Amino acid sequence: MERATGPMVERVFNFSPGPAVLPLSVLEEAQADLLALPGVGSSILEISHRSPAFDRILDDTLQGLKGLLGIGSDHEVVLLQGGASLQFSMVPMNLLRGQSAAADYILTGTWGATAIKEARREGKVHVAWDGAASKHDRLPTAGEISLSPAPAYVHVTSNETIQGVQWKHDPDVGSAPLVCDCSSDFLSRPIDVAKYGLIYACAQKNAGIAGVTVAIIRKDLLERSRDDLPTMLDYRTFVTNGSRPNTPPTFAVYILGLVCRWIRDSMGGLPGMAQHNAAKAKLLYDVLDGSGGFYAGHARPDCRSDMNVTFRLPDEATEKDFLKGAVSRGLVDLKGHRSVGGIRASIYNAMPVEGVQSLRDYMVEFQQARRS
Ligand SMILES: *Cc1c(COP(=O)(O)O)cnc(C)c1O
Q1: pLDDT above 90: residue 76
Q2: What is the CATH number of domain 2-22+270-371?
């Protein structure tokens, strides 16, 4: 168990796919600030989104993102609402509406499929690769991707949260703008922003809490948005108004800023974060690989995710026993998504290595007990 300071609080190791575990130090800082922000005398929950105190918080958060990701002057960063799901619509509304070209989607799992459904409402969609034939257990090789002649953009999902497959390199899509749903591996590793036309991510997996969504947009793409878009669905509204055209989700923006600072000051920035995450994932994949098939990974080894480790046990009854035993050890929310079944361990940025070690030890013991 993770020990919080202060009053008696027992924290379990929470493997939830999202909203997910937060850094303990971030929770403690938010707790301390909740009654009164230092020097302000009111809670972050109570102050105006136009106040000088919130000016600072919003600026800190945006600077934190820019610093971690190395975002240059070609891109704008905006904070939005509506979750990653609204981006499934906003991306094609802004980048596809009125275009004669198709948008290409590389379909690697459940979230990509949901994105495609919304894009079809706005224009032509071409599925450049579909991994459904093998239940989305892998990513395409470069030769398997068939792009349309001059796509409006190419959309990928960097980490499919449900299947547990993750791109290990930036997909090469030629000169078309690359659009990426980074929701479940955002800020988990460095990313070369310059290669992307648009990156979007909800915060509640790796970067904070529900309510705020980050979008990073190449400036020239903003010119595609049409003037008849609803104001609040037009990226330009958020760029022009510094992510504050109306009341932003102030508490979620504040937490995102704290998480950025935690990654920078305590985790060695994104390179350090990536090392930490890869080491955690290896602990579990080593158990899978050494289990003689008892723990059968869903994703193929060359595509498996450092964020969501998905696997099956020999049968559903054994999986039930596994989950029950896990809870009794304070290892919670390990049930896989119903579409894949089995177990899913989500081990985002804030999952401490002790939590993963504890799960690893339990897995080894559980298998041994079944053998004897
Ligand atoms: C969680 C998730 C979403 C959906 O996010 P919401 O904020 O709930 O809309 C979309 N894409 C991916 C990859 C996700 O992991």
Answers
A1: yes
A2: 3.90.1150.10
